[in-house]
């Protein structure tokens, strides 16, 4: 099995501070990983490194078989789909839903090309897959937060990426919209030929069964990584958070609660 992401002894230092320290992480082709960490733990920095926006101070980064430093990053980025809140803010409000999706083919923010029938067919197919085809003719600005995220995920898939990065895709969604989005992601991830997915979240219960592996990031270091059920235990997460928590698995999802403190 080939390895899609290989970070070896990766560190990143800024203004005298270690933002990432000695990260070793391997994501095999076809695996789906969740990355969990508190605010400021280095998740976005890690993703920026995988996308080649920043370079490690130490260590090596290999993505889809390309060793950074010896590869054309712009070309490589065409094989990576990326959905993040910063992307969401950059899309023009008047752009129609279908055009937002189509623009993913050209890795551009607006649509400046003239897509053919094949591209339109694919865009509609992806919107069907994510259950948002009815948004095709709607301006992006009129879509709800959850609808925008679905369009952006479809956009991310438009270029047939081998790797899809979803950076906190449920931020700002209400309970139902979140469950709906998670369901769409899970369905898409289970399809034959789905890309390898890295899903960044703050919430354990968003780690659906399709995310077979989890990486815990704390203070820029890997606290633990491996099979999700092994990593997300009450003991492990209590040590990770420096707070006593209990993990309850319901419907194959890990729900985390603060342990009740016994009053003296
Ligand atoms: N260019 C930079 N220069 C200096 N410090 C930085 C830089 N980029 C990030 N940091 C710091 O690195 C730490 C990790 O930031 P990062 O955004 O990667 O965390 P995160 O896990 O994505 O957080 P959140 O969950 O809040 O999005 C933070 O303390 C941040 O201030």
UniProtKB/TrEMBL annotation:
<dbReference type="InterPro" id="IPR003593">
    <property type="entry name" value="AAA+_ATPase"/>
</dbReference>
<dbReference type="GO" id="GO:0005524">
    <property type="term" value="F:ATP binding"/>
</dbReference>
<keyword id="KW-0547">Nucleotide-binding</keyword>
<dbReference type="InterPro" id="IPR003439">
    <property type="entry name" value="ABC_transporter-like_ATP-bd"/>
</dbReference>
<dbReference type="InterPro" id="IPR027417">
    <property type="entry name" value="P-loop_NTPase"/>
</dbReference>
<dbReference type="InterPro" id="IPR017871">
    <property type="entry name" value="ABC_transporter-like_CS"/>
</dbReference>
<keyword id="KW-0067">ATP-binding</keyword>
<feature type="domain" description="ABC transporter">
    <location>
        <begin position="5"/>
        <end position="244"/>
    </location>
</feature>
<dbReference type="Pfam" id="PF00005">
    <property type="entry name" value="ABC_tran"/>
</dbReference>
<protein>
    <submittedName>
        <fullName>ABC transporter ATP-binding protein</fullName>
    </submittedName>
</protein>
